[in-house]
Structures are given as structure tokens and as C-alpha cells.
């Protein structure tokens, strides 16, 4: 009845599995899963825009807006309920994207990339000078409550982990649904040939605007989850180097599947820990080299390896 | 009145610095259609190498005067070495690909350069104040300014003039303009486009490194300066229209004065003002102030 495809089944089945893993795995792994679910959502947002040929070099903007909106709601209005925080973060991101979208939807290719970068840097410039919000240091966020229930210690950690897994994976499943919908396929048509799209009776501007708002909302959600996981926000969230990492993940994992960026983020987080420990000054160099190799040899990302394997397996069975 | 003079001089100073740091970027984009994020890496390489060379030279106890030769020399060395390695080693294989893809490629190169700088010179800050200090100070309406700042304004004007002359008054420059106009036709006419590409990339790299090299005496050179300057340089060249040298001049003046005004009237808005000018210009004229109308391809 729900017409779930494989990816959606995988994501929905992933919710209880991840929650159970939270009780089994060592604490530091659980922490990394939690953090990378937050950033993974932003990478997803970059990836769905990349499907339409739009490279957002400033997705950190909404990552930051989400985190700061939730943080400020807690700091100035005393809101600590996680559901309200999530909704605030998403709504503020959605609203900002609605306004910025009128400007950005007129641009494609490098202009889209650079203008989204400029917008994120406007916020960076603003936040790093605002002393009320702790300038470049940012500020801390108190731990959230759940409909009036305020757990402590280990229970609080588990509760927050569960409260991160459920919205993140549900959101990913919904995004998958979006990409399968007519609106989602317009994205691909947009990348291929915009003018023909217009002749077929759809507004390219409107499609870009909607896509941009969806991506922003997802990034806002990611921002709130990330900020709650770390208990802290700072302007680095909207610096272009942060946004660059999201682009890196979508390049590496490719635009083939929704699950890929989530996995990609997690693997990258784990690799980073060891790489930084082994040789702190070559981490970016490793990233750069991997990125170059991916672009040259695997233009569709690592996911295309899996797809190719699948395709060749099907071929042999048919024979 | 005093503030107005201060804004004027600081604005010109910022504009000169911005022009020097971004003209290489616009040149490379104009000729090769590559929006080169690695430009920030070249800026950092230039700053580090010149600060390092000045430091070594000053240890010998010789006259400061020769450091002014050392600065452009290091920029040229960086331009030749890094520019040639990257152009011949990586970019050559990517020509003709999507412009957005080239942004990602140069971003990857930028990441590599960032760590290469750290590996060569370490993560500690380098200071090479001597060239800026040596020229002394000058007082204008009671406000002290370093003479070095005025020397930079002069250098920016000189660079702009040489580039204009080179492009419009020499045979090679005119051939380059032909290449910019239409790559395929000029190749068919027998112009060695590959050679022009390599040369342009080396010159662009040298200019980026020069921007860093002349800035080094005024600041303490630390990791991460490349990431800051690249966004600034984008703002400059986008305002004037990417690929146009004249546009870079106008963009540098716009951004330079926006920054000077906010520094003197409302300091917290310093960074914010730059990108605000950029967003405002783009909202009105999407492809920059001096862009030409382009046909759509169906």
C-alpha cells in the first residue's frame, strides 16, 4: 500500500537497528553515528541539489541557521523541548530559504555555487562579530527535554541518540520519496536541459526554488541534531570550508542513492579520527587527493561501483 | 573630514590589496573558464615563501632594500613551480569539462595546497615585518600611515597598467584576446592554445602568489589565510563580471571602500559589508556589472 522501494525499506528497517546498536556499541562509536547523522543530512541536501546540476558551496548556511535557531530558542526563550526545537530549526531554515530562493533561483552552475557561498559567508561575518551570540566562540546549548521528561546521565544520552536516529532516517526516507516523485524527476530534467523543461510546461525557476527550500529544511534539521549532539554551536558551521566538506561527501558517495551520503559521512568521520591522529597535517591533503581521484576515475561516486557490480551480476544471470 | 580622509586612504589601500589578490583569478577565468579555488592556496604559498625568504635573508644582516626584490622573485618562483606542476600535471587532463566540475577539481587542489604549505613551513606563524617597517611612516592630517601601504597602491596601479598594455598593445596579448573570444576558431587559425593556457595559468598563479607575498610583511602569516582571501577575491571579481580585468578594478574599489566605510563607521560590520555589496550587485545585475549579454543554447 505504501509502495516502499528498497531504499525506503532499508532506511525504515535501519531505525530499530540503529537504536539497538546504540545500546551495544561502545560509546564513542555511538557518538560518531549521532554526529554524522546530523552532518549526513546536510550532505544529503547538497546531493539532492547536485542531482539538478546545482552545486551548493554554502549549504553550511542552513546547517548553521538550524543550529543557531534551536540554540537561541533555548538561550533566550527557555525552550528545551526537542520537538519544538526541531520544528523551530526547520521552519526558520525554510523561511530563510524561501526568501533567498528568489535570488538564487535565477542562477545556475558556478554562479549558483558562488552566490550560495557568499550568502553563507554573510552569516559567518555577522555571527563572528555578534557578541550577544558569543562571536567566534559560539555558545553552549543545554540538553533537551522530551515532552516534559528531563532525563539525566546515560539515559539522557540514549534518549538523545534515539531522538536523532528517528527524525534523521525518516527524513532520508521522505527525501527518497521526493526524488521518486514527479517533482524530483524534474530535477534531473533541469540538469539535462532547462529550456526544454520550460517548453514542456514547467517553471524551472519554481522547481529550483522548491528544491532549494527542501534542501534548506533538511540542512536545518541536520543543524539542530548536530548542535544538540555536541551541545554547542559556533560560526564555523557556516564557514565555506564546512560547506566544502559537504560537497566533498556528495562527490565521493555520488548522487545515485540516498543512503550513500549518510554512510559516507560516517566513514569519513571515523577515518578522520585515525588520520588526524596519525598525521595531523595531511588530512586535507588526503581529502583533496581522494576527491581528485574520484572525479577523474569514478565521476558518479563510489556508489556507482555497487551499481555496476549489481548490473553485471544481473547480466550473468540473464545469460 | 578626518574620517573621510581616513576612509579614502584606507579604501584605496584595501582596494589595491584586493586587486592584487584577485586579478590572477579573473585572468585565469577569462582565458580558461576555470574558477580557480586553488588561487587561495597560491596566495598562501606566496605569503609563506616570501615571509620565509625575508626571514632567512634578514639573518645575514644585509640591507633591507634587497627584500623588495625578494618579494616578486618568490612570487615568480611559486608561480612557475606550483603553476606548471598543477597545470601540466592535473588541469591539462580536464580541459573542456564542465565549469562546475572544474570548481570542484580546483577545490581539491586547494585542499592539497593547504596541507602542502603546512608540511613545508609548519603550523607556526611567520613574521617578516622588515620591508613594511623600513619605509617608515607618513602623517596625513595627523593620522600615521605606513609608506608601504602607498607603495602597494602604486604596485596595484602598475600591475593593472602592465596587464592592460600587455593585453591591448602587444601581439601576444591580442592573440590572447582572440583565444578568449573563441577557443576553437583561434586553434583552427593556428594559434597554439595549449601554450597560451599554460602561460596564462602561470601568470595567474604568479599574480596570486604576488598578492600573498606583498601582504606578508603587513601581517603574521598563519595557516588558513588562503581560505579567507579566496572568498574575498570571488566577491571582487563577481561584482565586476568574471573574466574582466577592468571589472576586477571596479570590484576591488567597491569592496575596498565598503570595507573601509564599515571599519571606520561601524567596525562589527566589516566582513558582513563585503558580501552584502556582492549580493546586492548580483541581485541587480546577475552576471556582474560589466558582463556581456550571452545567447542561450538550446
Automatic annotation (TrEMBL), chain A:
This one is known as Amino acid/amide ABC transporter membrane protein 2 (HAAT family)
Please give one Gene Ontology molecular function term for this protein. branched-chain amino acid transmembrane transporter activity
* Recorded topology in the membrane: Multi-pass membrane protein
Subcellular location field: Cell inner membrane
Keyword field: Cell membrane, Membrane, Transmembrane, Transmembrane helix
Please name the InterPro entries in this protein's record: ABC_transp_permease (IPR001851), LivM-like (IPR043428)
| CDD domains per record | TM_PBP1_LivM_like (cd06581)
Coiled-coil portions: none
Q: Where is the chain membrane-spanning?
A: 61-77, 83-103, 110-127, 158-175, 245-271, 283-306
Extract one GO cellular component term from the record: plasma membrane
One Pfam family in the UniProt entry: BPD_transp_2
TrEMBL record, chain B:
Q: Which UniProt keywords apply?
A: Amino-acid transport, Cell membrane, Membrane, Transmembrane, Transmembrane helix, Transport
Q: Which GO terms describe its molecular function?
A: transmembrane transporter activity
Q: Name one GO cellular component term.
A: plasma membrane
- The main location class comes to membrane
- How is the protein disposed in the membrane? Multi-pass membrane protein
Annotated compartments? Cell inner membrane
Q: Which residues cross the membrane?
A: 6-29, 41-59, 65-87, 99-121, 141-167, 188-213, 219-239, 272-293
Q: Which InterPro entries match?
A: ABC_transp_permease, BCAA_transport_permease
State the source organism's domain of life: Bacteria
An annotated GO BP: amino acid transport
List the Pfam families hit by this protein, alphabetically: BPD_transp_2
> Does the entry feature the keyword Oxidoreductase, yes or no?
no
**Which PANTHER family does the annotation name?**
ABC TRANSPORTER ATP-BINDING PROTEIN, BRANCHED-CHAIN AMINO ACID TRANSPORT SYSTEM PERMEASE PROTEIN LIVH
Could you say which protein family the record assigns here? Belongs to the binding-protein-dependent transport system permease family. LivHM subfamily.
Q: What is the official name of this protein in its record? A: Amino acid/amide ABC transporter membrane protein 1 (HAAT family)
Q: Which organism is it from?
A: Cocleimonas flava
Amino acid at each position: 500500500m505504501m509502495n516502499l522501494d528498497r531504499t525506503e525499506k532499508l532506511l525504515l528497517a535501519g531505525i530499530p537497528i540503529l537504536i539497538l546498536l546504540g545500546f551495544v556499541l561502545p560509546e564513542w562509536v555511538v557518538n560518531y553515528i549521532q554526529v554524522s547523522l546530523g552532518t549526513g543530512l546536510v550532505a544529503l541536501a547538497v546531493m539532492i541539489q547536485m542531482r539538478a546540476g546545482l552545486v551548493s558551496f554554502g549549504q553550511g548556511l542552513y546547517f548553521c541557521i538550524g543550529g543557531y535557531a534551536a540554540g537561541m530558542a533555548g538561550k533566550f526563550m527557555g525552550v528545551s523541548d526537542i520537538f519544538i526545537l526541531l520544528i523551530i530549526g526547520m521552519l526558520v531554515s525554510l523561511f530563510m530559504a524561501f526568501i533567498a530562493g528568489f535570488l538564487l533561483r535565477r542562477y545556475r552552475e558556478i554562479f549558483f555555487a558562488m552566490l550560495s557561498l557568499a550568502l553563507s559567508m554573510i552569516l559567518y561575518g555577522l555571527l563572528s562579530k555578534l557578541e550577544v551570540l558569543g562571536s567566534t566562540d559560539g555558545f553552549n546549548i543545554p540538553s533537551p527535554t522530551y515532552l516534559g521528561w528531563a532525563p539525566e546521565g546515560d539515559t539522557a544520552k540514549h534518549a538523545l541518540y534515539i531522538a536523532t536516529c528517528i527524525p534523521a532516517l525518516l527524513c532520508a526516507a521522505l527525501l527518497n520519496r521526493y526524488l521518486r516523485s514527479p517533482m524530483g524527476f524534474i530535477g534531473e530534467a533541469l540538469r539535462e536541459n532547462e529550456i526544454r523543461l520550460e517548453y514542456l510546461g514547467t517553471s524551472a525557476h519554481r522547481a529550483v526554488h522548491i528544491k532549494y527550500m527542501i534542501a534548506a529544511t533538511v540542512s536545518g534539521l541536520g543543524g539542530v541534531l548536530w548542535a544538540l549532539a555536541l551541545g554547542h554551536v559556533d560560526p564555523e558551521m557556516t564557514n565555506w570550508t564546512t560547506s566544502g566538506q559537504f560537497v566533498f561527501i556528495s562527490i565521493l558517495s555520488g548522487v545515485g542513492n540516498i543512503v550513500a551520503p549518510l554512510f559516507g559521512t560516517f566513514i569519513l568521520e571515523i577515518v578522520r579520527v585515525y588520520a588526524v591522529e596519525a598525521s595531523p597535517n595531511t588530512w586535507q591533503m588526503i581529502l583533496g587527493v581522494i576527491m581528485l581521484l574520484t572525479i577523474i576515475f569514478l565521476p558518479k561516486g563510489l556508489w556507482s561501483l555497487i551499481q555496476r557490480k549489481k548490473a553485471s551480476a544481473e547480466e550473468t544471470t540473464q545469460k | 573630514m578626518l574620517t573621510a580622509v581616513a576612509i579614502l586612504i584606507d579604501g584605496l589601500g584595501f582596494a589595491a590589496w584586493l586587486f592584487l589578490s584577485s586579478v590572477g583569478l579573473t585572468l585565469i577565468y577569462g582565458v580558461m573558464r576555470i574558477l580557480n579555488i586553488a588561487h587561495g592556496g597560491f596566495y598562501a604559498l606566496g605569503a609563506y615563501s616570501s615571509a620565509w625568504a625575508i626571514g632567512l635573508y634578514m639573518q645575514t644582516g644585509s640591507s633591507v632594500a634587497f627584500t623588495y626584490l625578494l618579494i616578486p622573485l618568490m612570487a615568480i618562483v611559486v608561480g612557475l613551480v606550483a603553476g606548471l606542476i598543477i597545470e601540466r600535471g592535473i588541469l591539462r587532463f580536464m580541459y573542456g569539462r564542465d565549469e562546475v566540475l572544474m570548481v570542484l577539481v580546483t577545490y581539491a587542489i586547494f585542499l592539497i595546497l593547504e596541507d602542502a604549505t603546512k608540511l613545508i613551513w609548519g603550523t607556526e606563524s611567520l613574521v617578516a615585518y622588515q620591508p613594511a617597517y623600513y619605509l617608515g611612516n607618513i602623517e596625513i592630517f595627523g593620522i600615521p600611515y605606513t609608506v608601504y601601504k602607498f607603495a602597494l597602491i602604486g604596485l596595484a596601479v602598475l600591475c593593472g597598467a602592465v596587464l592592460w598594455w600587455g593585453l591591448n598593445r602587444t601581439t601576444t596579448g591580442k592573440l590572447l584576446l582572440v583565444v578568449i573570444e573563441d577557443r576553437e576558431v583561434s586553434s583552427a587559425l593556428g594559434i597554439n592554445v595549449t601554450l597560451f593556457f599554460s602561460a596564462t595559468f602561470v601568470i595567474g598563479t604568479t599574480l596570486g602568489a604576488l598578492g600573498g607575498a606583498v601582504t606578508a610583511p603587513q601581517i603574521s602569516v598563519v595557516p588558513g589565510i588562503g581560505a579567507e582571501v579566496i572568498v574575498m577575491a570571488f566577491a571582487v571579481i563577481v561584482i565586476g563580471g568574471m573574466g574582466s580585468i577592468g571589472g576586477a578594478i571596479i570590484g576591488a574599489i567597491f569592496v575596498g571602500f565598503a570595507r573601509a566605510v564599515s571599519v571606520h563607521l561601524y567596525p562589527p560590520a566589516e566582513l558582513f559589508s563585503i558580501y552584502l555589496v556582492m549580493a546586492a550587485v548580483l541581485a541587480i545585475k546577475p552576471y556582474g556589472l560589466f558582463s556581456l549579454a550571452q545567447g542561450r543554447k538550446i
